[in-house]
Structure formats: structure tokens, C-alpha cells
Amino acid sequence: MSRSLKKGPYVHPSILKKLARARQGELLIIKTWARNSVITPEMIGVVFQVHNGKIFIEVRAREEMVGHRLGEFAPTRKFVRHGGRMQKELEQKAAQTEVEKAKVEKK
Predict the structure, then answer these.
(1) How far apart are CA 51 and CA 7, in angstroms?
(2) Residue 61 burial by CB count (10 A; 0-12/13-18/19+): exposed, middle or buried?
């Protein structure tokens, strides 16, 4: 569900304060924990460091991101990989074939 039109998009007050203080053309990096803040047109070109629960991930606001939330671009879960022993064996075989192809191309 989107927010009411009469209320407008939610942007954390500290982000608005930092944007107001910045000079135009200045490279601005804003460190924030407010993942639920919406990206507005005034934020285009600004680099945000969005906290994902462990570290800060740099997100540069672009035109196509307007209307989305900052948290959408800083994933909180890290995908390791699927599979176990069988998957590891398949990856090793694939690596071997690549090495063999490289040797054949060198000759």
C-alpha cells in the first residue's frame, strides 16, 4: 500500500536536513539507517550509505530510483549458494574444463 497523496512521500527528517545544508554540485555522502525513506527528485546524484544491519552499502540515487525506498537497494541477506557436495563437484569439473580449453587455445 502506498502512502496517502495528501501526506506525500515519507523522507526521514535528518535526510532532509542534510540535503538542505548541502551546496549544489558538491559531492554529498549521507550516512543513514532510515531504509524506509522514499527517494525524491531532489536526491538524484546524492550518494547514500544505507545500513543493512551489519555494514553500510553505498547507493547512488538515480532518476529511475525515484519513488522507491532506500532499503530496496541495500539487501539485508547474503546469498551464499545452493547445493552441497554434488554442487561443489560440478563446479570443480567446470573449472577443469575451462583450464583445459585455455591450454588448447594457447597451443
Answers:
(1) 26
(2) buried
Nearest alpha-carbon partner for 72 in 62, 59, 63: 59
Stated pTM of the model: 0.71
* Of the options 3.30.565.10, 3.10.620.30, 3.90.226.10, 3.30.860.10, the CATH number for the domain spanning 13-77: 3.30.860.10
> What value does the mean pLDDT of the chain take?
89
**Interatomic CA distance for residues 105 and 14, integer angstroms:** 58
Domain boundary assignment for the chain: 13-77
Q: How far apart (Å, rounded) are the C-alpha atoms in residues 4 and 51?
A: 27
- Give residue-wise pLDDT tens across range 54-90: 999 999 999 999 999 999 999 999 888 777 888 888 8
